[in-house]
Amino acid sequence: MRIWLDGALRDAEGARVSVFDHGLTVGDGVFETIKADHGRAFALTRHLERLTTSARGLGLPDPDLDEVRRGCEAVLDANPMALGRLRITYTGGVSPLGSDRGEAGPTLVIALSATERRPDTTAAVTVPWTRNERGALTGLKTTSYGENVVALARARERGASEALFANTVGALCEGTGSNVFVVLDGELHTPPLHSGCLAGITRALTIAWAGAKETDLPLDALERAEEVFLTSTLRDVQAVTRVDGRQLADTPGPVTAEAMRIFDEHSAADFDPR
Ligand code: PLP
Asked: Where are the extended beta strands (E) located within 17-161?
C-alpha cells in the first residue's frame, strides 16, 4: 500500500508520523473520507471545500489543495482497486506534549483502503448522548471522533450499524457518520444544519436531487416516520429497517427507493457534482 505523507508518495509500512503530532495527542486535526470507485474520487471538489472549511474552523492554515489533489491522484493510481475509502487527514502537526500547536506546520496524510459496497438496508438505534449544536467544533469534520466511537459501539451491541443523536434541545440531529432523513405524511425531511449536524455531502446532493425539505424535527419523529434513511459517502442512500424496537414496514419504502434511484442515476452521470 502506498500513501501520501507530507509531499511524497511512500510505502505505508515505512511511513512515520511523529508520536508528538497534535492530531494524535489532542485530536487537533480534520479529515475527509471520499468514495473511490475504480480509481476516481467521487465529489472530490466538495470534499476539498469542506476540508478547507473544517481546517479554518480549527484555526489551521488552509490546506494546499493542489497538493491534496496531486496526493489523491497519486494514491489512487498507486493502489488500483474497485471500491476504496480514500482518507485525507490534516493535523496541527508536531508539538511538544502540553504545549500549543507547534510552528512546524501541519501534517498531511492521504491513504486508501479497499472496502465493500454497503448493504442497502440497516438498523439504527437512538443514544442518550447529545450533539452540541453550539459547540466550537459543531459542523467541522475533526478527528475528535471519540464520542462517535462510543455511540457506534452502543449501536453494534444492539445489532445496529448506526446510532442517532438528538441535539441539546431534543431535536433530531444526525448519526455517528451519517445524516438522517425521514418521511412524514409522504414528504421527505432532514434536520437543518443549525441542528448541529455535519454538512454531509451526500445529504446536500440528496436535498438537491431528491428535493428533501430541511425541517426542525423532534427526536420522536423517528417513532412516527413512515420511512427513515441514512446518507453518507460510503452508504450513499441506505434504508433503515428498524429504529430501536420499531420495525419499519416494507423497507426500502417508496420514497427511499426513489431517493436511491435518483442518487445512483445522478452520481453515475456526474462524478464531481458542484
Ligand atoms: N455526519 C457525520 C458526523 C459524519 O462523520 C459523516 C460522514 O462521515 C456524515 C454526517 C455524512 O457526510 P458525507 O455524506 O459527507 O459522508
From this structure: 29-37, 40-41, 83-91, 107-114, 121-131
Whether the complex's predicted ipTM surpasses the cut of 0.85: yes
C-alpha cell at 51: 476540508
R_g (Cα) of the chain, nearest Å: 19
Main-chain phi, psi angles of 68, to 5 degrees: -65, -45
Residue type, 196: G
Task: Read off the pLDDT of residues 94-140 as tens digits, 9 standing for 90 and up.
Answer: 999 999 887 889 999 999 999 999 999 999 999 999 999 999 999 99
- Tell me, using a 6 A CB cutoff, whether residue 79 lines ligand 1: no
Q: Is 179 in the pocket of ligand 1 (CB under 6 A)?
A: yes
Q: Per the structure block, which three cell numbers stand in for 263?
A: 442518487
Tell me if 95 CB under 6 Å of ligand 1: no
Whose grid coordinates read 491522484?
73
Ligand 1 atom at minimal distance to the Cα of residue 176? 3
What does the pLDDT look like over 166-199, one tens digit per residue? 999 999 999 999 999 999 999 999 999 999 999 9
